[in-house]
Structure to design on (189 residues):
């Protein structure tokens, strides 16, 4: 099903999204990769506040390239999400609900998604220049020393994504593969 949604990603909104849905996302998202996630989780361990309010937040796993003159941001393609798997359950435990990236997630991340009504959106790898066109505003908010991995606040309009894992833990990578193999087996029998 095709859905146009406006952030923040509340629990109620998250529960309306299902594995395989095509989603056009509009609203504020945050960027971070493994170095930024490590810093945020270390801050949480020390009892410190994060540099943004994680409540119902969506985090895009991206390390954008520098913007050229006249651009809001450079190429902004997804990072392999597994690099954030050690941190994702902690981030969800403090309110972050949406994750955007590419690739499979560990079972403990899926369990945290079910517990906290999280949603994992897939973005198309290799399409960073096209995805950057959906980014209308970009603001550096923390960890400038991390360069492309710094924490940024983005405003996106109609960012095309697919729900890979929904809040019930249904996983397109697993169920889609199983359906394809079953169909292929029928074709050859």
């Amino acid at each position: 099903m095709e859905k146009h949604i406006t952030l923040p990603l509340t629990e109620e909104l998250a529960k309306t999204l299902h594995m395989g849905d095509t989603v056009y996302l509009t609203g504020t998202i945050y960027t971070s990769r493994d170095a930024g996630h490590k810093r945020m989780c270390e801050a949480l361990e020390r009892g410190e506040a994060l540099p943004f309010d994680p409540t119902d937040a969506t985090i895009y796993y991206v390390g954008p390239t520098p913007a050229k003159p006249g651009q809001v941001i450079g190429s902004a393609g997804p990072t392999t999400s597994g690099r954030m798997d050690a941190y994702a359950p902690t981030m969800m435990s403090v309110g972050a609900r949406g994750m955007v990236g590419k690739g499979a997630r560990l079972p403990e991340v899926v369990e945290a998604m079910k517990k906290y009504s999280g949603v994992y959106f897939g973005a198309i790898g290799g399409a960073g220049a096209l995805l950057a066109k959906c980014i209308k505003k970009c603001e550096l908010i923390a960890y400038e020393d991390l360069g492309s991995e710094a924490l940024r606040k983005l405003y996106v309009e109609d960012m095309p994504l697919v729900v890979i894992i929904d809040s019930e833990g249904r996983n397109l990578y697993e169920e889609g593969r199983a359906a394809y193999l079953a169909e292929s087996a029928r074709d050859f029998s």
Remarks:
- The chain has a mean pLDDT of 94.
